[in-house]
Amino acid sequence: MAQKNSVRSYDKLADLYEGEQVGNRFEQDSNFTIHRMQEVHDRPVTSPVFRANYYSFVLVKEGKSFYTIDDRKYETRPGTLYFTNPGHLKSFGIEEVVHGFLITTIEQYLKKYVHQDVFKEFSFLLTETVPPCYLDATSFNELHGLAEQLYGEQQKQSPLKDNIIGSLFVVFLLKVKAYLMADTSFKIAYDRDSEIANKFKKDLEAIFREGKPSPQNLQVAFFAEQQGLNPSYFSTVIKVKTGKSANKYIQEKLLVEAKALLTGSILPIKAIAYRLGYTEPTHFSKFFKRMTGKSPNQFRKS
Fold first, then answer.
1. Secondary structure tally for the chain: helices H, strands E
2. 73 Cβ neighbours under 8 A, 6+ residues apart
3. What DSSP line would sit under 201-264, residue for residue?
4. Topology of 193-301 in CATH?
């Protein structure tokens, strides 16, 4: 957790609840969480502005609440589905106790248990800001039923729990995608800075999806050039929109990909280094150790 200008940043939902005292505390031992809203928020509350470094999906069955993303405020009502992605300035308010589900996860979990190319199928996850989707009763109940199944699996201690959750979550995401694409009121509310940040995320994802990272195309200047922007201005926009410098965003993305390859493949460390664009495997090992405190081999064995 870090603090800057009184706005705190959180990597886990449990840390947010403990740090800001906006919900009932709980222990979090996984990068996938699902909670009944009425259990973690059993009374009205309004959060301060914070930055969440994880994805959130919320289903509102009943109750009254609102949330803000950057400078936009959205109201919820029964039958609401909404999600937010990492990096934004956020806040929320529970005005009347909400019944429904709150799901959180991170990119590394999605890459490992949903699909390595999760953003190819579910590109909406990279969208800068998505307004809430108000579903009819049938559609909402379908999603709510899937959330109930996810909740049930999360309570179990099966050694294959994450694999089962990942498979169920694929269906959940497919349903979300279908509802968003069918909703005539679904519009991506871009401002210029959001367009810049959104294209940066998609360009970065495409490099790894196509297997073409290199020392040249993982530079801030490369991404700025793709949009015809001055690198300094580009970096400022990315910092404002995501809370991270463009260079740090690239490095963290590189780290996610490295961890996914280390845990999800049997490729030698040298081959992983080359796949991630390193011409010298030792440079990859130094980068990984600097970012995690462990060598790639130590991480793979842990």
1. 13, 10
2. 66, 67
3. HHHHHHHHHTT---TTTTSHHHHHHHTT--HHHHHHHHHHHHSS-HHHHHHHHHHHHHHHHHHH
4. Arc Repressor Mutant, subunit A (1.10.10)
Q: Give residue 2's pLDDT.
A: 40
2-182 CATH choice from 3.40.50.1820, 1.10.3430.10, 2.60.120.280, 3.40.50.150 = 2.60.120.280
Q: How far apart are CA 134 and CA 185, in angstroms?
A: 9
User: Which residue matches tokens 């390193």?
Assistant: 278
pTM of the complete model:
0.79
| Nearest-angstrom CA–CA distance, 142 and 50 | 31
CATH 2.60.120.280, the chain: domain bounds = 2-182
Outline which parts of the chain fall under CATH 1.10.10.60.
193-301
Average confidence (pLDDT) over 10-31? 93
Instruction: Give the whole-angstrom CA distance, residue 245 versus residue 227.
Output: 17
Q: Could you read off the pLDDT of 195-226 as tens digits, one per residue?
A: 899 899 999 999 998 889 999 999 999 999 99
Tokens 């390859």 belong to which residue?
261
